[in-house]
Design goal:
Blueprint lengths: L3 E7 L3 H12 L4 E4 L11 E2 L2 H7 L18 E2 L5 E2 L10 H12 L18 H7 L4 H11 L13 H17 L4 E2 L7 H12 L3 E3 L6 E5 L2 E7 L2 E10 L8 E14 L12 E5 L10 E7 L10 E8 L5 H4 L1 H7 L4 E12 L8 E3 L10 H15 L5 H12 L3
Parallel strand pairs: 1-2, 1-10, 2-7, 10-16
Antiparallel strand pairs: 3-4, 5-6, 8-9, 9-10, 11-14, 11-15, 12-13, 13-14
Helix pairs in contact: 1-7, 1-10
Keywords: Acetylation, Cytoplasm, Golgi apparatus, GTPase activation, Membrane, Phosphoprotein
GO biological process, one term: vesicle-mediated transport
InterPro entries: FAD/NAD-bd_sf, GDP_dissociation_inhibitor, RabGDI
Length: 400
């Protein structure tokens, strides 16, 4: 381990594993370590079911009605992926007209603007142009464009229109949902990117205690583990490894619920995402529900896993998510957790220590992707180019 690396990565959350893979593909010499013996960090998949009961200190063993414990792979922080990067069709003609406008919109073709300046016209004015009501606006902004607040309403409309367009194109790709979810849970994703890193020369070490991050003259120079020092030029890590360099900006409550039935009024769907917009429940933050099932090889046959999450706003977090829990009744077993939202205190450009953010309450990967692209830009000084990454892979392995 007494070697010098371009990048050392601490933690095997999805953010860290993706960045490890990207840096390896870019030709960097990468060492990736985690104090845990498993992949996934705080977003790990827990199996068997007995381990979930132990993790949340639920007394006793899971009842026989839960099926075989090894049939369960429960994600602690589930997130859906947009299929191209749920709700039924509205009958209102003006909303359909709006969707047609979005589908035809091309920011490079002024003929598609219909009198709207995408760089200057606020999204609020676009909604007004199509005479959309508040309920439709809430749905469009929070469930389609995936905004967490209403700040976007007074911003230029171009980004919002493109977000809605992405949703529509993703929905069209498979017909029932714009989202993807991996079989056996999200735990497969970090391992996939770890393998990508290894293919390009990355070195992985699990179950490796981290004794010290060594900094000289304000800049990281290495990591000490079990008496040995690995030197590096840059460090990527999750907040748990550098508690003195992060700050708490809030909390998230998550409740994992085991059900024996699909969620009501979802046409017996074996998976779905429900977003309750903040305005609908007099809150500042949306409430998220995601449900998956045995169809994804994450639960025993006939069982469903629903996870409710939101940003904590009061001293009684469980009361805040009651509107969502009522949608899920009856609930066989609940697992409640409240975790801190941690963000880096600085950009890391001086210390060359780049820290990811803890996962927020959303049930999609949009904010996680934003964090990955932001860290990449701070590390390299350039925007992440996915097409360039594909070209590098094809140079070695040829076209897919």
């Amino acid at each position: 381990m007494n070697e010098e690396y371009d990048v050392i990565v601490l933690g095997t959350g999805l953010t860290e594993c993706i960045l490890s893979g990207i840096m390896s593909v870019n030709g960097k010499k990468v060492l990736h370590m985690d104090r845990n013996p498993y992949y996934g960090g705080e977003s790990a998949s827990i199996t068997p079911l007995d381990d979930l009961y132990k993790r949340f200190k639920i007394p006793g063993a899971p009842p026989a009605s839960m099926g075989r414990g090894r049939d369960w792979n429960v994600d602690l922080i589930p997130k859906f992926l947009m299929a191209n990067g749920l709700m039924g069709l509205f009958e209102k003609r003006r909303f359909r007209k709006f969707l047609v406008y979005v589908a035809n919109f091309d920011e490079k073709d002024p003929r598609t603007f219909e009198g709207i300046d995408p760089k200057k016209t606020a999204m609020r004015e676009v909604y007004k142009k199509f005479d959309l009501g508040q309920d439709v606006i809430d749905f469009t902004g929070h469930a389609l464009a995936l905004y967490r607040t209403d700040d976007y309403l007074d911003q230029p409309c171009c980004e919002t229109i493109n977000r809605i367009k992405l949703y529509s194109e993703s929905l069209a790709r498979y017909g029932k949902s714009p989202y993807l979810y991996p079989l056996y849970g999200l735990g497969e994703l970090p391992q996939g990117f770890a393998r990508l890193s290894a293919i390009y020369g990355g070195t992985y070490m699990l179950n490796k205690p981290i004794e010290e991050i060594i900094v000289q003259n304000g800049k990281v120079i290495g990591v000490k583990s079990e008496g040995e020092v690995a030197r590096c030029k840059q460090l990527i890590c999750d907040p748990s490894y550098v508690k003195d360099r992060v700050e708490k900006v809030g909390q998230v409550i998550r409740v994992i619920c085991i059900l024996s039935h699909p969620i009501k009024n979802t046409n017996d769907a074996n998976s779905c995402q429900i977003i309750i917009p903040q305005n609908q429940v007099n809150r500042k933050s949306d409430i998220y529900v995601c449900m998956i099932s045995s169809a994804h090889n994450v639960a025993a046959q006939g069982k469903y896993i629903a996870i409710v999450s939101t940003t904590v706003e009061t001293k009684e977090p469980e009361k805040e998510i009651r509107p969502a829990l009522e949608l899920l009744e009856p609930i066989e077993q609940k697992f409640v957790s409240i975790s801190d939202l941690l963000v880096p205190k600085d950009l890391g450009t001086e210390s060359q220590i780049f820290i990811s953010r803890t996962y927020d309450a959303t049930t999609h990967f949009e904010t996680t992707c934003d964090d990955i692209k932001d860290i990449y830009k701070r590390m390299t000084g350039s925007e992440f180019d996915f097409e360039e990454m594909k070209r590098k892979k094809n140079d070695i392995y040829g076209e897919d």
